Amino acid sequence: MAQPETAWGPHPEPLTVSSAPTPEYGSGSLADLLPTLAAGLGVPDMNAAITELTPADRNCVFLIDGLGWEQLKAHPEDAPFMTSLLATSRGGTGRPLTAGYPATTATSLASVGTGLPPGAHGLPGYTVRNPDTGELMNQLRWQPWTQPGVWQPYPTVFQLAHAAGVHAAQVSSPTFQNTPLTRVALSGGTFLGRLTGEDRMDLAAEQLAAGDRSLVYTYFAEVDGAGHRFGVDSDTWRGQLMYADRLVQRLAEQLPPRSALYVTADHGMIDVPFDEQHRIDFDEDWELSAGVALLGGEGRARHVYAVPGAANDVLTCWREVLGEQFWVASRDEAIAAGWFGPHIDERVYGRIGDVVAAARDDVLLIASEREPKESAMVGNHGSMTPAEQLVPLLEVRS
Ligand SMILES: [Zn+2]
Fold first, then answer.
1. Which residues of the chain, if any, have pLDDT below 70?
2. Would the pTM of this model clear 0.70, i.e. be above it?
3. From the CA of 131, how far away is ligand 1's center (Å)?
4. C-alpha 225 to ligand 1 mean position (Å)
């Protein structure tokens, strides 16, 4: 398989659906991480798809929300410890992982925790249509409420590891303890809520040591939050990156024997200028909104649900209006191109838009009326460009 760097040249081939750089499902995507670690722990039926990683008895995954590979590489002075680990990325190859499509938190956390691509776990967007009700459902906030075990029926890797006698634990914010997203994506074993990053690192190290074989997950949110509000190069963002770097070092220095720490992210980020060329407003554009029943996804990764019979017209129109700024695919084209993984579960098919639009340039398709908050964000993510799709997989071993 081609390396991401070659697939994403500065002058890609003519714009077609298949020219989009599809995530490396099955060999180097976020969904491959936990199964690889669990396989090394002897959990049955797990595929060690990331062949560069060497098994360890105690495994910790530290997920830094929003810290893409390109942003980390661009700020060595703010993240000296993580920068020192870049050569150990992906088991010493110095290469990143791909997040999966779309590159958004709910989708990626589900990919991490279930070890499955979006087409299987069924959280293929920030908001997607629930085919049973016809309503949009927000996957991050789980609104409107939907039966979690029906929406995502697969066990998590933590649950399977726990059942196989591995000590499994998640150390995150207490506010996530009982959310449906945690339940479908990150449950299994013990959930421990701690408010501060320092407490989480200390507790994650303790949990690693609590079993002869262990699988521990911990999380830090604020790099993403600062990027959305102020942009990737803002002082606030850099401050959060510096803080995250100290947290990684704090955890690395406390690793018990026979441990491997993996630092990764759910997606990267890209700043989008505030002008009409870069922020196309769906709510003000009668061409784009013609024939559209529901607008899902987010500014750089749209699911478009057409009124019955209008899907082809919407596809044609979106291609014309958006030109080369977006990859615009029909549902079947996006599925065939592997954007959501090699296989789409039947229950997931109708959650994917009739038309799927993924940003290629530094543009956004905002919706100023229906999504006022999201439309005002500086930093954004969702699509398949390297800035948002590539995430680190740094390794520290004790
Ligand atoms: Zn985000």
1. 1-15
2. yes
3. 25
4. 7
